[in-house]
Amino acid sequence: VQLAESGGGLVRPGGSLRLSCAASDSMFDTSPMSWHRQAPGKEREMVAQISSRSSTTKYADSVKGRFTISRDNAGKTVYLQMNSLKFEDTAVYYCKKDNYPKTWGQGTQVTVSS
Fold first, then answer.
1. Mean pLDDT for each 10-residue chunk of the chain (114 residues)?
2. Contact (CB, 8 A) for 95 and 75
3. pLDDT for res 25
4. Among the residues of 1-105, which ranges form H helices?
5. Which residues contact 24 (CB under 8 A, 6 or more apart)?
6. Amino acid 1: pLDDT
7. pLDDT at position 98, please?
8. Is 5 within 8 Å of 107 (Cβ atoms)?
9. What 3-state class would DSSP assign to 10?
10. Are 76 and 1 in contact (CB under 8 A)?
């Protein structure tokens, strides 16, 4: 199983980005997925989770109302729409396959700066 994130970049405060995570997993539609982030000098933290059929989502308090996780099972892709970005959202963002075999992507950098 391989996961490949894309969509990161430099954005001004208040701006938006959409991250994508493409999976090679043939069982993608049975895999819960999540996005995590790690800022310099900080521990990696969960940002958002989504169940295999999108029936359940969960968000960190710090991103509720600003970020939206979604998925396209036919396209084997999970997305993270990030709106109203703040300086403190700057981090490397990783997607993760949450069932066996648990797998991490390589990460994509998001920098919020004026």
1. 96 98 92 97 97 97 98 97 98 96 96 97
2. no
3. 82
4. none
5. 1, 2, 3, 76
6. 87
7. 96
8. yes
9. strand
10. no
Q: For residue 64, give both structure tokens.
A: 């509720």
Is the CB of residue 20 less than 8 Å from the CB of residue 108? no
Q: Kindly report the number of other CB atoms within 10 A of residue 15's CB atom.
A: 13
What pLDDT does 108 receive?
A: 98
Q: Retrieve residue 53's tokens.
A: 């059929």
Query: Cα(83)–Cα(81) distance, rounded to whole angstroms?
Result: 7
Cα of 19 vs its chain's centroid, Å: 6
Closest CA to 64 of 39, 31, 89: 89
